[in-house]
Amino acid sequence: MQREEIKFYSENAKWGEFSNFALFSVKIKGKLWSTSEHYFQAQKFEDKAYQEKIRKSASPMKAAELGRSRKVRIKKNWDNMKDNVMYEAVLEKFSQHYELKELLLSTNDALLIEHTENDAYWGDAGDGSGKNRLGKILMKVREKLRQ
Fold first, then answer.
1. Helix, strand, or coil here: 133?
2. What residues contact 92, with CB distance under 8 A and at least 6 apart?
3. Which residues does 10 contact at the CB level (< 8 Å), separation at least 6?
4. CA separation (Å) from 3 to 35, 94, 128?
5. CB of 117 within 8 A of CB of 127?
6. How far is Cα of residue 87 from the mean position of the Cα atoms in its chain?
């Protein structure tokens, strides 16, 4: 039997709550972040002032833009850290919002896929060839929340 697939991307579409752009705040290490995207993007940088600029940015899109800037040096080991940082952000988001936890658990054993041609690392590259790291992290968080 084929495993059910749930594809998500836009925060305004069905399952949009799974997007890091979804407007759910998250408190991590004593600070409140507007979205998990804000937190994730800020963690790329050592520069505390720049992290704060990202934290206070007006939207997740703005946080992402600031996070993609290479005018400020990113952490040397970022590529080795990014999956763990994403896991931390997603786990906190779904632990801190009861309705999100319930929604994630309601997916049972469905395959969660960030469906976008804009991203072959966090998403499926639009054609399934991507790594779908965000989908896999969501499934790992779902497992943890079940316990």
1. helix
2. 26, 27, 28, 36, 39
3. 16, 19
4. 30, 23, 15
5. yes
6. 8
Those residues of the chain that have pLDDT short of 70 are: none
Maximum distance among all Cα pairs of the chain, rounded to whole angstroms = 52
40, 55, 93, 106, 135 from 28: Cα distances, Å: 11, 11, 9, 25, 21
What DSSP string runs through 30-67? TEEESSHHHHHHHTTBS-HHHHHHHHT-SSHHHHHHHH
- pLDDT tens for 62-102 read 999 999 999 999 999 999 999 999 999 999 999 999 999 99
Cα angle value 28/136/106 (rounded, 5°) = 80
Q: Read off the tokens for 58.
A: 């007006």
Domains defined along the chain, listed by start: 5-146 (1.10.357.40)
| Helix, strand, coil abundance in the chain, percent, nearest 5 | 45, 10, 45
CB 37 within 8 A of CB 64: yes
Neighbours of 107 (CB within 10 A): 16
